[in-house]
Amino acid sequence: MSAEATNPVSEAETTGPDAPGRRRGRPRIDLRRLGRAALLGATAGPAIRDRLPDAIGHVAEAHRAHHPDADLAVLRRAYVLAESSHRGQFRKSGEPYITHPLAVTLILAELGAETTTLTAALLHDTVEDTEVTLDQVRREFGDEVAYLVDGVTKLEKVDYGAAAEPETFRKMLVATGNDVRVMSIKLADRLHNMRTLGVMRPEKQARIAKVTRDVLIPLAERLGVQALKTELEDLVFAILHPEEYEATRALIAGNSGAGDALATIAEQVTALLREAGITAEVLVRPRHFVSVHRVRLKRGELRGSDFGRLLVLVGEDADCYAVLGELHTCFTPVVSEFKDFIAAPKFNLYQSLHTAVAAPDGAVAEVLIRTHQMHQVAEAGVVALGNPYSGQDTPDPAGAEDGERADPTRPGWLSRLLDWQQSAPDPDTFWTSLRADLAQDQEITVFRTDGGTPGTISLPAGATCIDAAYAQHGEAAHSCLGARVNGRLAPLSTVLHDGDTVQPLLAQDTTSGPSPQWLDHARTPAARIAITGWLQAHPEDVKIPAAAPRPPASVTADRRSGTRLRVELPGAETPAVRPAGCCTPVPPDEITGFVVRGGSVTVHRTACASAETMRRLGRSPVTVHWGDTAACRVTLVAESFGRPRLLADLTEAIATEGAAVVAATVEPPSEQRVRHTYTLQLPDAAGLPALMRAMRDVPGVYDVSRARHPASPQH
């Protein structure tokens, strides 16, 4: 991990008033003092070396606060190896290099990381920057520590050139798929480097900040490590948006007494809960800089209570809802602000009740309600879970039969990422797709209907049926025609919502493939990479859409009608009678007729909207009866998903049922859907239901109905 120099921006300015990631009462360690302690620890006599070196006393203190029974001997050995191997190396700011792994380890210790993670954090740069080998780390500290160190070791630019950074992240993410602690160390490493970025050239600061913004901050959010995420956001904000940062800093400095309004409400809440017999801790939680900036953009001028939120910590889940009930009873709740992330946790393990209440003086306070355990997970995410493999028989990262650890903390988004990264053909595609994937900061869960395992699919918010098809069937989804969403047929472009049931419909013809328009609706990198790969491999099958809509293709056949109609017009000659094109009545439909210009009679179904309009206009209906013949002419509309040979299969189904095609129109495809309109001559009207069923059974056809609008003119 790179060694950067001290940031000239002060601690309070870079981390914001919330000071995320550190326990109150423990000041940030002075790097120069830590460096001197590191050197003293290296030169001390044998008696001093037998105990924990003073340089990591702060690490030991933070670690024991979370793990009172932790064995610190392994940390002493790791520190001795790290200090001796980095001896003589200095950071650009002048501190001994050992101060960097010490600071990274302290960050993780304060979050509650277990001993193995801290050991790897102390050693995380040894293999990359010193003569220490991975085999040496494995011999002295075991397979787990070696796996974590290897996971965060960067690939050499000498070997990978410009692809070194994306390929390093690819390697790190694959390692994270087997052990999430790899990414915990990387996040702490980046946080310390961001804290000490000041002497770098401005352009390099901006480059590192952009990668942090696009990749590391979303990863911290998805792993639930809010304490690291919020401080990284503020550090990036200061570098990439210095003017807005200064304005926010001045705003916070000019409202130093803003917390008084929240403190008053906090006292009222404390008294309320005490009277209700609920044991709770009520804290005022100041917002960090980026949060203040976002609230200001959303609300405009800020009030005192907007500069922070109340945090209520209780012992049990049931107490959270008891607190909520008391707050909503004794204060005026802002209903639109209520969210229950306990019953429905976020995909990054976060749990809390969110609400907002208005005090009698009109001040509105946002309130977070959670248990102490929820709070630890909300701050530290996966770091707070300790060692997820402590209960497994084998600690070997490669011990699983499939070469991959069964990580109970692996979230769905990480599994998706690990799947699609294997298909990314080059570093640029991987890097672009990774940033796009991480930009999707919400997740939905949909249910599959084929009985497969698992029974649910996790997708980013905004995903469509195309994404679900590729997530479920892989490259077999190339032949997808459509889907059933919640039991109803839907086009592939349909956006899915949390809790939907989705069943992709695949064509029997596996040689068919996606169209370029699918890329307009694919949201997941897995789908986009698969579609792009197929299109590039089959350029001859890619149909370029016309610049303007094409006129409907027309096929015309025999126009003679075998349907006989009898009309009753007293005192008049028998007029010409024709079925209306808007509703195409056929026996045994109930019908009515209206005299139109020229004296002819147009016959409508009784329930036809056009017939109802003519009645409202005062047109008198005439009585019309079906004649003796059973033959009829009808216009049917077939809605389908576009695919090769669809027209041929439809006309074959029509012919099999004994109907003759009088006329047919095929409209240009729209969002992969095609509308076919057929005027058909049936020898017997009783065969119409069977004909419509046969047309619906054609693969790709999802609906067949009688025409209810004027048919396109035939030529």
Task: Give your account of this protein's structure.
This protein is α+β, with helices and mostly antiparallel strands and 715 residues long. It contains 27 helices and 21 strands. The strands form five sheets. Strands 1, 2, 3, 4, 5 and 6 form a six-stranded mixed sheet that branches. Strands 8-7-11-9-10 form a five-stranded mixed sheet. Strands 12-19-20-18-21 form a five-stranded antiparallel sheet, with helices on one face. A hairpin with a 5-residue loop joins strand 15 (591-595) and strand 16. Helix 6 (99-111) crosses helix 13 (181-195) and helix 16 packs across helix 18 (289-299). The relative contact order is 0.06. Residues 1-51, 391-409, 544-562 and 710-715 have low confidence and may be disordered.
List keywords for this structure.
715 residues; disordered C terminus; single chain; elongated; alpha+beta; 16% strand; five-stranded mixed beta sheet; six-stranded mixed beta sheet; 21 strands
Give a quick summary of the entry.
The protein is an alpha+beta fold. The chain contains 27 helices and 21 strands. 41% of the residues lie in helices and 16% in strands.
Q: What is the strand tally?
A: 21
Overall pLDDT metric: 77
Distance, first to last CA: 74 Å
Helical residue percent band: 40-55%
Rg, alpha carbons = 35 Å
pLDDT < 50 stretches: 1-51, 391-409, 544-562, 710-715
Backbone shape: elongated
